[in-house]
Specification:
By secondary structure, the chain is an alpha/beta fold. It has a 4-stranded mixed β-sheet. Helix 3 packs across helix 5. It starts with a helix and ends with a helix. The model has no long low-confidence stretch (mean pLDDT 90).
Length: 157
């Protein structure tokens, strides 16, 4: 969804890469590889935004957690959240792919449902973790939040 939203952002000077990772739970394999490759190549990276587990909002508060943001990145998420009428909370969560980028020296945040706050799926790593148990409007809202932050960062109106 974020990729579709970002196709309307025309900015050749600041490209946006959308990447999917595998094997997070067994050691951040994919993200560690990419972070290392980007660092070794000397690739300029403004920020990394990872999205993991944004499909649950049982209490209906429309709140997302922004994991380990810099002050500047958190301010960007707060501004985007205000535009969309959602809430964001800064947390110290670090057990997902954004950590690999941070360790490689890049500004990086994770975006999630309220994993630390306790409003998180009871279907985590279970056979019942299917599309049927997702709050799809909340997933779409999370995609809009991330896309808006990125669009603003690359100079889109």
């Amino acid at each position: 969804a974020a990729a579709r939203m970002l196709t309307e952002v025309a900015c050749r000077d600041r490209p946006v890469r959308l990447v999917l990772f595998d094997q997070e739970e067994v050691g951040l394999i994919g993200s560690t590889y990419l972070a290392g490759a980007l660092r070794q190549a000397g690739t300029a990276v403004a920020a990394v935004h990872t999205v993991d587990q944004i499909g649950w909002d049982a209490d209906g508060d429309r709140r997302f957690e922004i994991e380990q943001p810099t002050a500047a990145l958190f301010a960007e998420y707060q501004a985007a959240a205000a535009t969309l009428g959602v809430a964001v909370t800064s947390t110290a969560g670090s057990r997902t792919d954004h950590q690999a980028f941070r360790e490689a020296g890049f500004a990086a945040v994770g975006v999630s449902e309220e994993y630390v706050g306790g409003d998180t799926t009871p279907h985590y790593h279970a056979a019942t973790d299917t599309a049927a148990t997702l709050d799809l409007p909340f997933v779409a809202l999370g995609a809009r939040l991330v896309a808006l932050v990125i669009a603003r960062a690359v100079g889109a109106p």
